[in-house]
UniProtKB/TrEMBL annotation:
<dbReference type="InterPro" id="IPR042177">
    <property type="entry name" value="Cell/Rod_1"/>
</dbReference>
<dbReference type="InterPro" id="IPR007221">
    <property type="entry name" value="MreC"/>
</dbReference>
<comment type="similarity">
    <text>Belongs to the MreC family.</text>
</comment>
<keyword id="KW-0133">Cell shape</keyword>
<feature type="domain" description="Rod shape-determining protein MreC beta-barrel core">
    <location>
        <begin position="131"/>
        <end position="276"/>
    </location>
</feature>
<dbReference type="Pfam" id="PF04085">
    <property type="entry name" value="MreC"/>
</dbReference>
<feature type="compositionally biased region" description="Low complexity">
    <location>
        <begin position="310"/>
        <end position="320"/>
    </location>
</feature>
<dbReference type="InterPro" id="IPR042175">
    <property type="entry name" value="Cell/Rod_MreC_2"/>
</dbReference>
<feature type="region of interest" description="Disordered">
    <location>
        <begin position="280"/>
        <end position="335"/>
    </location>
</feature>
<dbReference type="InterPro" id="IPR055342">
    <property type="entry name" value="MreC_beta-barrel_core"/>
</dbReference>
<feature type="compositionally biased region" description="Pro residues">
    <location>
        <begin position="282"/>
        <end position="292"/>
    </location>
</feature>
<protein>
    <recommendedName>
        <fullName>Cell shape-determining protein MreC</fullName>
    </recommendedName>
</protein>
Amino acid sequence: MPPYAGPSAPSRTGEVADTLRLLAYLGLAIVLIVLDHRGGWLRQAREQASLLVQPIRTVAGWPSRMAGALYEDAGTLAQLTSENDRLRNQLLVNNARLARLQAVAADNARLRGLLGGKQRGNLDVLLAPILDVDLDPTRQRLVLDAGRGDGVRVGQSVIDAGGLVGQVIEASPIQATVLLLTDPSHVVPVAVARNGVRLMAYGNGRSDRLSLTNIPLSSDVKVGDLLVTSGLGSRFPAGFPVGTVAELRPDDSRAFLSGDVTPAAQLDRGRDVLLLRSAPATPLPSAPPPPAEADATTSGAVAPAGEGDAPSVPEAGPVSPASPPPQPGPAEVTR
């Protein structure tokens, strides 16, 4: 029986080869480190490789940069849209506030004018708001937010800061109806403030005109003359401005003159009027006479055209100075 030889000894050729390869790599690495430290050629190689890779890196970063730009643009657009909406709303609010302030300023100026007219004439008046206006050519009316409960009575004179507006023709407990000067059924006895010539002013359905008829050619009436209430008939107190003569012309008969008057009161605007509680103690002061050059122009325009022998309106005589206005009284406007 042959003896047991035991396991065969493994071959060490592969291990030796691996060990030698490792030592060669380590030696090469040491050499490269030393050379790079002294000459820097490996750093230069890295820089060149980095230049070659840069385009690839740039292309690879495009999606990220595009996504960031789109996100930023979307956020900026949303912010600008929100700010634009906010500014637009703020502009609308500011315009509404400005319009309201302008309306309040206009109301303030109008009320100051009414109060100034009351103080200049030392008048006992009632301030009444206007509820409704009817300016139909055949019916000129105002409806006031004041009635018998506030002391309003039929026949009461109505004025504003400019002059006479009309008279109360109907009064209920809480409202009143005013007949305007321009109503076709209304007539006002007037006088020329410059010389006291008495006339009649008729309504004609127009809110910007009154009519004068049957003016004698010899009457001293001129364009620009101020007409005031004469007090005849005891319907309207004397001395309140009615209007200004705007035009004079011969009538169809050529024996008289007719004319147009621009009302002194603002009949087609305003939201408040004054009702006279009682007649003033003294007539209101009249306006100064018109300039001499306006009188000369008027006298030439009044003469009938084409009538060589027709009489003309004579020139105005001397005008007495207007009496000084009375001092304002302590009374307040009642609303």
